[in-house]
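User: What would this chain look like folded?
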Amino acid sequence: MVKISDMKVGQVIKNEFDQITRELLRQYAKASGDTNPIHTNDEIAIRAGLKGIIGHGLFSFGFIAKLFEDFLNQEEHGKLINIDISMRGMVRCGDTLVTEATVTKIEEKRVFFDVKQTTFTNVDIKDKNGNIIEQFEAGERGYISEKDIHRNLVKTKEVDEGTLTYRERVSMPGTATIELYN
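Assistant: Here's the prediction, encoded as structure tokens.
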């Protein structure tokens, strides 16, 4: 049970999803009725200047709502009052989507959060000599731009296979408020 007395400023709730596929986006398009082909057809997305399909904005937003619904156990412990976000970055197949909400203020039974949804886009893995040993869709399709590099969004880290290059970008910043019952 989530209680207001258990909440602390600075506390973080988080979820992560790493199974964004073309099939999942097709299923979402069908279920949502948003059949814009930039979400389901690579050729049309490329003609639109996107280098490949992108996830629906509301698809990504759904993970923010899910974070709070799971935290509140589908309104058993409280209710979601509002979410106010800004859609700033595209989500693509193969991305890992990380949603975090940090408590900024607590007033009576209301808890206020800063929300940040970040995409992690794997580009490639190179061996110690700089040879590509695995390339991901982002590397094959050129999803990483000069703008990403200049904004210091492209990073590397050591993994078992070698050095992973990836982009880390905030795709949706915002705020949210919940109200707890106890």
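The chain has a mean pLDDT of 96. If you want, I can go into more detail on any region.
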